[in-house]
Amino acid sequence: MSAPRTLTFFGGAATATGSMILLEAAGARVLLDAGLFQGNVAQAEEKNRELPLDPGKVDAILLSAAGLAASGRTPQLVRHGFHGPVYATPATRDCAAVLLAHTALELATHGHQLYGLQDVFASQQLTVGQPYHRALHLRRNLVFEFTEAGHTLGSASIELRTGEGGSHRMVYSGSVGRPGSAIFRDAAPNPGEVDTLIIGSPFAHLRHPTFSDAQQRIATIINESVARGGLIIVPATTIGPVQEFVRAVQQLWHAGNIPEIPIWMDIPTPVSLTTMLRLHPETIAANEDAYATEAGAFDRSLLHYLPQGNPDFADTIEGPAIIVAPNETCDSGRSAHHLRRCLGDARHTIIFASFQEDGSVGRLLEDGAESVELGGAIVERKATIETMTAYSGYADGEEMRAWIRALGGPVKRAFVVQGDDLAVAMMVTILREEGVRDVIVPRKGESFPF
User: Fold this and answer.
1) 363: nearest Cα among 277, 422, 302
2) Which of 76, 276, 342, 380 has its CA 20 to 30 A from that of 399?
3) Contact at 8 Å (CB) between 446 and 6?
4) CA distance 66 to 38
5) Collapsing DSSP states into helix, strand and coil, what is residue 25?
6) Can you state the percent helix, strand and coil of the chain, rounding each to 5?
7) Which residues, in sequence order, are bridge partners of residue 184?
8) Run of H or E including 335
9) Do 327 and 339 meet the contact criterion of CB atoms below 8 Å apart?
10) Residue 371 — φ and ψ, nearest 5°?
11) For residues 344 and 373, what is the distance between their CA atoms, to the nearest angstrom?
């Protein structure tokens, strides 16, 4: 009699962040992602301090992406006893090394003890770069492989097969990206029947504008901001989908549609996405561009990086200028610092490209809040608020429908994760319209046999 197989949802259930799913099969305990909860500072800190399982009893971690919502808890698990392998695509491994170091430095600045740089270094020593479409056996009857998810550099969907002869096929979508990116490759899942699908998209309820329409909107926003002499603050991970936004601004300037405007990247370590792209040309849509002249994704004509060790330099930047700074939801980090400075001034503009978790500063502003609390102070909103989900890196509802169809199917059972109530409800509708009869919305801590 075979051992029972279960899925337990510790994060990414009824929320878009904190992705962490425990798979128990073939005698192994494997985590699909180990992400940080983000959003409202107090609520996120409480959730992140709680370890819902013993890390020392986890055999392996599979990471779908380098973003903190997918990888951000890995050093914390290592700190508390995890010592197994962490599998990620080579590009995710390298990007996570940078982003997790950013996070450790930020945590130290605010006196948080979640983990430190030594824990990041220890987790990196455990991380194994596993290429796309190369199957790896974790146990005799448990094998996985990564497929391209198209969300950001190195992002992956995770396919697992368990049971005798790999009889049960499970697919975890990870963060599926938008098709048609000029930088990243389109998502490409393996086609075939799926016994268990774990799927999510925080923007399943939306229809993104095309990249060309979004670029025209960027031109309008920049020209209006330049006329006011204001700053444009873009809260976003600086190694991530925001590169598509940066590329669009560069193109607009070269075409003469906007005036020259500096783009400042406010990051605590001097590693840029363009450097990471050149290290991993296998992930680029047109990989021959990796060593082409300064153009496209590698155009640095408007880019500037803040001097290392001098974060106060940012306060000397006057408009017109664009500042890209983490964290995406503005509850902490450099983006919160810039909002404290700029939100109360009508000359400035805040562009939200990333998903804004319910209760976060970003979501409150998107919903029309007249004031928000930043660093213990109430700041009145006078700046212009813009939302541009086209540059979030996440597929919308119809793009997710196309991804489901690319699986070929049929899909016997699906779990919907990574989204607020509206996005989850729409994903459930899409799945049922695509013929999936057994659709489950798990809650945090729930377990399911499969």
Assistant:
1) 422
2) 276
3) no
4) 15
5) strand
6) 35, 25, 40
7) 284
8) helix 333-342
9) no
10) -155, 155
11) 12
Instruction: Give the number of other CB atoms < 10 A from CB of residue 361.
Output: 27
Q: Mention every residue, 6+ apart, whose C-beta is less than 8 A from residue 264.
A: 304, 305, 306, 314, 317, 321, 322, 323, 324
CB 49 within 8 A of CB 341: no
* Cα gap 68→37, rounded to integer Å: 8
Q: Tokens 């902490």 sit at which residue?
A: 332
Helix (H, G, I), strand (E, B) or coil at 377: strand
Q: Are 365 and 385 in contact (CB under 8 A)?
A: yes
Q: Identify the structural domains of the chain with CATH numbers, from first to last.
A: 6-206+393-449 (3.60.15.10), 211-391 (3.40.50.10890)
Q: Side chain identity at 317, as an amino acid letter?
A: I
Q: What is the pTM of this model?
A: 0.93
- Digits of tens for pLDDT over the chain (450 positions)? 456 899 999 998 878 899 999 999 999 999 999 999 988 888 888 999 999 999 999 999 999 999 999 999 999 999 999 999 999 999 999 999 989 998 898 888 777 789 999 999 999 999 999 999 999 999 999 999 999 999 999 999 999 999 988 899 999 999 999 999 888 899 999 999 999 999 999 999 999 999 999 999 999 999 999 999 999 999 998 777 888 899 899 999 999 999 999 999 987 666 777 788 888 888 877 766 666 665 566 778 898 988 776 778 888 998 899 999 988 889 888 899 999 999 999 999 999 998 898 889 999 999 999 999 998 899 999 999 999 999 999 999 999 999 999 999 899 999 999 999 999 999 999 999 999 999 999 999 999 999
Residue 196, CA distances (Å) to 67, 152, 171, 411, 412 in order? 24, 24, 6, 7, 6
> Which residues are registered as beta bridge partners of 23?
7, 30
Contact (CB, 8 A) for 353 and 242: yes
Contact 234, 353 (CB under 8 A): yes
